[in-house]
Amino acid sequence: MIFLLIWLLLIGYAVFLAPGTGANNPVIPQLLSGDWGAIDPLVLAVFNSLGIFPLVFLTLLLLNDRMRWPAWPFALLSFGIGAFSLLPYYAFGLRKPEKKLRTPRWLVRFLRSRFWLVVLIIMWTGNWLTLLQGFSFADYVDSFFASSLVSVMTVDWFVLYGLSVYTVYRLYPDARYKRLAWVPIVGPVLVLLVND
């Protein structure tokens, strides 16, 4: 029930409450034109991390895809709409296991491989290295209130972060070093790596 409530609140926020404007959105043209130098590095890092989060969820959920609903459609949709696609799965589909693992063995082997986990860590590291260019929380706050995209993606980021921590604790209750899941984005990957 809590995930359904969060989903409805997220939709309500995106549609009715997010500050900034849809038209004349200052960040969207810069992203589409590739003028990334004009975007604050923190805004860019958060935007890019919303492309890494789905890879983490794809890994976690497909390695445990034996719940009531198949996880892969929700995980794939998260590449486009983030937590908006995952929350219904958590609300209704993430029930006790009823089926054998749906994910093909070859894909399980790949997703569990050190190679794949290290690729995710490298992607995360590369993204956060952009912050070394210098960033400003004040500029981020300005972007948050000026751009509905930045407003919604910020809230989406925090929801995805919470879901990632929950997922590790829910699907890997006996994992060692579960507290690593609290490291944003890469934490669940580190949990999988140290429990390999």
Automatic annotation (TrEMBL):
Transmembrane segments: 41-62, 74-93, 113-132, 144-167
Cell membrane among keywords: no
Lineage: superkingdom: Bacteria
Keywords in alphabetical order: Membrane, Transmembrane, Transmembrane helix
Protein name as annotated: DUF2834 domain-containing protein
Taxonomic placement: Bacteria, Bacillati, Bacillota, Bacilli, Bacillales
